[in-house]
Amino acid sequence: MATAIPSIACLGVIGRNNNPLHTSIFPSYDPSNNSFRPVRTPLQFSLILSSTLDVFELRSRQNAAAGVGLTGDFGLLHAVDDRLAAYGFETNTGTRFVVIIDMRGRRIDGALAAGLDGRDRRLAGAAAGLREGEMRPVFKAMQGAYIRLLQNPFFDPDEHSPPTGQGGAKITNKKFADDMRRIGEAWTPGITNL
Amino acid sequence: MASSKASRLGEEYVWRTRMDKVNAELVVLTYGAMVAQLCKDFDSDYVKVNQQLDKMGYNIGLRLIEDYLAKSNTFKRCSNFRETAEMIAKVGFKIFLNITPTITNWTSDGKQFSLVFDENPFADFVELPDDGRAQDELWYSNILCGVLRGALEMVQMQVEAKFVSDVLRGNDTTEMRISLIRYIDDELPPEDD
Amino acid sequence: MDEEDERGAVFWRLERIGYRVGQGLAERFSRDRPRFNDTLDVIKFLCKDIWTLVFRKQVDNLKTNHRGVYVLTDNAFRPFARMSAETSSQTLIRAQPFLWFPCGIIRGALAGLGINATVHAETTQMPTAIFQIKTVPAKS
What we know:
The complex is a heterotrimer of chains A (194), B (193) and C (140). With 194 residues, chain A is α+β, with helices and mostly antiparallel strands. Chain A has 6 helices and 7 strands. Chain A has a single domain (3-186), classed as Beta-Lactamase. Chain A has helices at residues 42-66, 110-115, 119-125, 136-151, 157-160, 174-186, and strands spanning 2-14, 20-25, 28-30, 35-37, 73-79, 84-90, 96-109. A 5-stranded antiparallel beta sheet of chain A has the order 2-1-7-6-5, sandwiched between helices. Chain C has helices at residues 3-29, 39-55, 89-95, 97-112, and strands spanning 61-64, 69-74, 117-122, 129-135. In chain C, helix 1 (3-29) runs parallel beside helix 4 (97-112).
């Protein structure tokens, strides 16, 4: 018997002006025909990403008032349905990272999982839900990639987050897109370093 | 022998001193911002950008040589161009950038060699503009050529220095070619007494 | 190009380069610190962390009128350290260009952290440098 475990379905980067900077979509396992395909269309993912903006704002105000949330990790932003959940992080420079998790994105062999311990059992156990802080390595890796992008002298931050406060161009940098892809594909529950 | 002596000098220096170090990330970022600004100033005429970088490097090299001589504690002239190459790679680059490029591809007359850079701190994180030309025309680290040209001129060597490949362009290596044109005033370096 | 224009052009370039550097530094070095509460918090980060990174010391004095103007005084500004300390007007004029790149760094770091500002610098007595930051209220 197979057990479903979570995987990353989408990584989104949102600019300071609430403008989409980057979106990567990752296929989930589809048991009906034993193949991998995204569980939502690009438009649907983009709607989920933009729906997180209000939560970011609300959470940010609440955290400031309560004097908590000092790390920028906003945790679970919202559970979209019984399958998808969006997690968020905001940098000190106002860029936001969103991870959309598909709680049933991968399958592992249940019999195998039952006989194993350590990380593999955590994998199986993760099917029930993700622990607090589970997204930390993902955010850390995304922020690392974003900082490297900012150190590329030919990348002009003002094109992407204009100081006018309006709009901004998407990130077209190849290294950055490769990094996002690598992170989204490599993550599994329990992983501590990406 | 010259080789091990140069290595020792470079290592010794780095151990001995904690000079007025500037944050490396600041330097890398500043160099990058300057190159990017030049590309804008020259409207992406990369040939002109290369020339400008070389010129800036030359002016730095003219003055940096004093610093090099003081820091490296080398009072003796190099006895030949091979020794010069060793000192550049293992002392000069070690002192100023904390890297040691590999010396290779000597011509049989001993007047031309290559420095191959396994690491180039200037180029960390850099992705050249995707305009279909920068990859073929811009030598991002060209300031280094000018620095060598200027510094060596101050010690009576006229050289030509240019990059022939760069990993930033998608090449397998980053290689600088250095050719001795002449000893200035045709004055050979004095022999050791 | 007359001297005045040339100075202007040099100022513009150095300021632009500094601005881009400031943006990069802000992103990189604000990573491992708690969130900022307000503008003053950001200015303090600039006076301590960024200044130490660039000039290996902190700003000596910070004043604000609490209406968006901040005055930073560095009594031993590093770039001036090896310059003649005589206060002839000629020396002060020559020292000016060394303030332009730092002006850009300040403006860029603030921009990176979401604060639009104009930055002016002056020196009336070496090796002191005074930077005046005027924040531009966010449009909303």
